[in-house]
Design a protein that fits this description.
Elements (H helix, E strand, L loop, with lengths): L12 H9 L7 E4 L39 H14 L3 E4 L11 H10 L3 E6 L7 H7 L4 E5 L5 H8 L8 H15 L4 E8 L7 H11 L3 E6 L13 H12 L7 E4 L3 H6 L10 H4 E4 L4 E3 L13 E2 L5 H5 L2 H9 L11 H11 L10
Parallel strand pairs: 1-2, 1-8, 2-3, 3-4, 4-5, 5-6, 6-7
Antiparallel strand pairs: 8-9, 9-10
Helix pairs in contact: 2-3, 3-4, 7-8
The protein binds iron/sulfur cluster.
């Protein structure tokens, strides 16, 4: 199964139907922003105000300079609650670098204890201690944002705050360690295509394959130009991707999500209601629960705060109901859930007697 398929929801039909029928059904998947602190200052970071202005006021995040982390006690209680409610998956994602949470090891252990599968999106630059590595072995997947195949391009793309010259090399060393220590985890690299790095697309694939990673994923960077800044380089980008695809084997996949260029530059929304937020929700580093990553940190879309209520109270509360009623895909910023939302709209529509005539 394609890790990034918009049709993955079809493997969870019972949960999907329950959530459509009763929006108070707990979410299948929760994405957690553990910390807004980060040791990098990536030029493409979605949370930097100058990287992409969605037209929404994301005033609840400190845009690349903050130091907040989700408070550990509340976080651990919420993870345990999610496990009891039936949430099946947690992704530890951005705001900043999740591994910069002061108690990242405890968070990983709590997720494992709650019986929830988890994935991690990280810049891979933090040296992982043995306790952390032990918990990372249980991760279903780990994706490292690499975005370069050389030290120079890495420095331009990631702008590490530590000016040492070997930042890229250290991330590669960490990737090799992860590969050795977590043999059963699906480990891959993401490569956001940008005018600075497109010439290293194929080189990066060779590097990842050499480390023994499971895949490399390419997608256009989500900047204010909505991908248009890479359009002049598309012929070279496509030829680089073809070279990368030449390295594919059964164990190493090359995944090019170039259709996302259309999703972010000219969204075609053939559905009336967004429903993905019923299944997949976000908890920000401010403790607030939001419908999706694009609307995260926009106060008007907050469902409520885990510092004030339990997750269950937020999920079945009036504030969430009112926010959901306000969500209007035709006025939302571009997002990559259009295909999934089309499927969900189809599943939510009344069936007629033709459904078995496949
Ligand atoms: S349509 Fe996209 S941006 Fe709008 S709420 Fe849904 S997922 Fe978020």
């Amino acid at each position: 199964m394609d890790r990034f398929s918009p049709y993955k929801v079809l493997h969870n039909l019972d949960s999907v139907k329950r959530s459509i029928e009763d929006p108070a059904t707990p979410p299948l998947h929760v994405q957690l922003d553990l910390s807004e602190n980060c040791n990098h200052n990536c030029i493409f970071c979605f949370f930097r105000e100058d990287a992409f202005n969605t037209g929404m006021r994301r005033k609840n995040i400190a845009k690349g300079v903050g130091r907040r982390s989700l408070k550990t006690d509340k976080l651990l209680t919420t993870i345990s609650e999610l496990g009891k409610l039936g949430t099946m998956a947690i992704t530890l994602v951005g705001g900043g670098e999740p591994m910069m949470h002061p108690h990242a090891e405890r968070v990983l252990k709590a997720i494992i204890t709650a019986g929830i599968a988890y994935g991690l999106i990280t810049n891979g630059s933090i040296r992982m201690n043995p306790i952390m590595l032990e918990s990372l072995k249980a991760a279903t997947w780990i994706r490292v944002s690499l975005d370069a195949a050389t030290e120079t391009t890495y420095a331009r793309m990631h702008q590490p705050k530590n000016p040492k010259k070997d930042n890229f090399q250290r991330t590669i060393t960490n990737l090799k360690r992860l590969r050795e220590q977590c043999p059963d985890t699906d480990i891959g690299v993401s490569f956001l295509i940008h005018p600075y790095n497109y010439k290293e697309i194929a080189h990066c694939a060779a590097l990842c394959k050499g480390i023994g990673l499971n895949y490399i994923q390419y997608k256009p960077v989500y900047t204010e130009e909505r991908g248009e800044d890479v359009i002049p380089f598309l012929p070279e980008i496509k030829s680089q991707i073809v070279r990368a695809q030449g390295l594919e084997t059964h164990d190493f996949q090359v995944i090019a999500l170039l259709a996302r260029l259309d999703d972010i530059s000219k969204p075609a929304r053939d559905y009336q209601y967004c429903r993905i937020h019923l299944l997949n929700t976000q908890i920000g580093v401010d403790g607030k629960v939001y419908p999706c990553c694009v609307l995260k940190y926009v106060e008007e879309y907050s469902f409520g705060s885990i510092y004030e209520q339990s997750f269950e109270e937020i999920w079945s509360g009036d504030q969430r109901r009112m926010v959901i009623e306000r969500i209007n895909p035709s006025t939302c910023p571009p997002c990559w859930y259009d295909r999934t939302n089309e499927v969900l709209e189809y599943l939510a529509s009344p069936h007629d007697r033709h459904e078995t005539f496949v």
